[in-house]
Amino acid sequence: MKKSDTEQIRAANRVDIINTLRVFGPLARVDIGQRTRLSPATVTAITSDLVAEGVIREVQKPVSATGRGRPRVLIGLNPDHASALGIKLSINEIRLMLGDLQGNIVAETVVTADTQSLDQASLNDLLVDQASRFLEDYPDHARRLVSLGVAIQGIVDAHRGYSVWSPALSIKNVNMTAALEAAFECPVELANDTNCIAHAIHKHPEYLQKPDFAVIMIGYGVGGSLILNGDLYSGHNGAAAEFGHTKYTPTGPTCACGKAGCIEAYVADYALYRDARALIDLPETDRRHPSEDEMRHLTQLARDGSTPARELFDRAGRVLGFGIANVLALISPERVVVTGPGVRAYDLLEDSIQAGIQEALIPELVGRTEIQSYPWSEDMTGKGVIALALGHFR
Amino acid sequence: MKKSDTEQIRAANRVDIINTLRVFGPLARVDIGQRTRLSPATVTAITSDLVAEGVIREVQKPVSATGRGRPRVLIGLNPDHASALGIKLSINEIRLMLGDLQGNIVAETVVTADTQSLDQASLNDLLVDQASRFLEDYPDHARRLVSLGVAIQGIVDAHRGYSVWSPALSIKNVNMTAALEAAFECPVELANDTNCIAHAIHKHPEYLQKPDFAVIMIGYGVGGSLILNGDLYSGHNGAAAEFGHTKYTPTGPTCACGKAGCIEAYVADYALYRDARALIDLPETDRRHPSEDEMRHLTQLARDGSTPARELFDRAGRVLGFGIANVLALISPERVVVTGPGVRAYDLLEDSIQAGIQEALIPELVGRTEIQSYPWSEDMTGKGVIALALGHFR
DNA sequence: GTAATTAGGTCGACTCGTAAATTAAATATG
DNA sequence: CATATTTAATTTACGAGTCGACCTAATTAC
Fold this sequence. Notes:
The structure is a homodimer.
Chain A (H helix, E strand, L loop, with lengths): L5 H19 L2 E2 H8 L3 H14 L2 E4 L14 E4 L5 E8 L2 E8 L4 E8 L7 H17 L2 H5 L1 E8 L2 E3 L4 E4 L8 E2 L2 H7 L3 E5 H10 L2 H4 L4 E6 L3 E7 L2 E3 L30 H4 L1 H9 L14 H12 L3 H24 L4 E5 L6 H15 L9 E4 L6 H11 L4
Parallel strand pairs in A: 4-7, 7-11, 12-15, 15-16
Antiparallel strand pairs in A: 1-3, 2-3, 4-5, 5-6, 8-9, 9-10, 12-13, 13-14
Helix pairs in contact in A: 2-3, 4-6, 7-14, 11-12, 12-13
The first copy, chain A, binds a DNA duplex through helix 1 and helix 3.
């Protein structure tokens, strides 16, 4: 139970206004009032505070002189007022991204490192070291850094800031946040990479009003994320939505997690490529995961009429449909959004996803949830992790 | 977005105090302050309002004179200040329950009716008619009726008040609330019966502080319910948590829902009894579902060493474990609570549930969620539906 | 030039919750 | 038995919030 008092109201309305501005761009005070349902008086009070602090500022844009009356003066976030650093840790790669208060990525760099050989101490050193070095090039941003966000694949305990297990690391139960917190003296948010993507999608105007949706990310693995009641749901352990490791069938191909019959073992890039190589003459991939080019090649084979390739995608879609059916039965969200590199083949999957749902879902629930794909871009994780970090800004 | 203003604070703190009193019984003002984290001044202000309205009252109990100082005066809800009517609709049976403000059932009656032959109009008439007749015997309660709650098996659209599909009715997409709302001029809450049970459990002191748990009810079917972030989660369509119809395997025994391989088709009473009759000499059951006595007999056979019976329960437990593993992967709650008539055999299921989880769940998540049973009693649904209805009281 | 219109700001009334002071009602103590 | 002590509950003063009503500013329409 948390108590309600009057200062929390102001704080809540403040972030409400800030978030409204972040999502809906520069807005006149009247519009803010309409969107937040705050009275003009309150909007004026809060915005003048924010202007005084430099968080927002008036942008004099020759607003299309629509109608008469005093012209509205637009105000927008001042992107230069605060910055956040996003760190995305993948297998042998660290991506550092600098975001402004608006949530845009203003600088980015990629460092390669042997992430598998790290222990807790050297991981700490590596993260702090790389982040410091990166920030040195952007002293202005460094000065106004308000928070950090770390995205990592695998299972994450978001509440405690631990990576429970990640393909990027050989060690388990690793604290990812303490060293950075100490070094930069600001809050550090840790999140599963799929949660970052879900968060990024959630911040899009079209999705902001959808309080309940699930995101499924297909790529090197299969991840999931839930936005429930308008908030990222990360479960009691901070480790929810491991959709890829829900089961299609108790017996089945082996998954990267070691168990049999996970959705991921049918749908992830590595699974498709592995199974395809048993049927089709494909070049061996020397990496742990097939490359984007290799996957594009396989996808094109299916589009060009290769029956075994086609059947593999059909099966993947059907399995995905089964998994989604379980989500629909349990959560019944408004939408399921499929994204990730794997959407490159969404045209091949779509029909069989629907068929799988049809086959598995209790008929009365069929058709109540929209299934749709979301175009994938590489920097969604980055935008998401920065947005998540910026959540600490008030 | 909802506006925050100062009166909402008072409203929120008011219900906070009322709920605290409902759950933790009569309490002194100091204790209320401690539990709600409100200052003594605020507690005094709100409680004196509530006393003036008659919602709560001082109960002079010879409080064990522990220590010196001014003795605390306990205040508790005034059960006679408001009443709620709960209606539980099952196959050929309508159970009517009168609850006081405390949430206790003060009167109850059961009516039999041919629920399967009803159309929308005759259902409306039946519900209104039976409720009116029942209330006639309790004019005092009728006068202070604040809300109604309707519990029904099957798939429910709680937001809109529709029964999407129910074994109790032959018609689908039936509005269950409009007629009652019009007749009694007060809000009517509709809920799936398992959600009622989950709500009842959630109101227990021990569970109130657990904001994330799942409830699985085993009986004539297998139902599920989710308490997320401290609130009953009913999904965008108001139809979440159909745990029984998540899948164990794409091919498998036929479920009551018509699909193959649902968890329910292995675990529900009807499934166990059906499969047992194929292996063991058991009396045919003339009802659609085996009776409690018949199920007790089957359970006892397994306890007494009948190998085929034992194996059936083992399989049911394992399947349940698989299903729970999917819930853990997706939701990662703090606890999973198993209840319903089926817990009569929990001793037979427990080990194989754990084995099933172990087998299916990604190892890193094993052991993070407590699985426990909750003793079943017939009136949990009633208490839950009344508690749900009383949620409208402020 | 004046009226109409729309945006934004100011001020007073009201509400809320809290800290601190005060009152109430018991026990402990000598 | 009177008084100090202790704990519970209430009252008071105050700072913080929102809102409605009114006012001012800056345009366009005529």
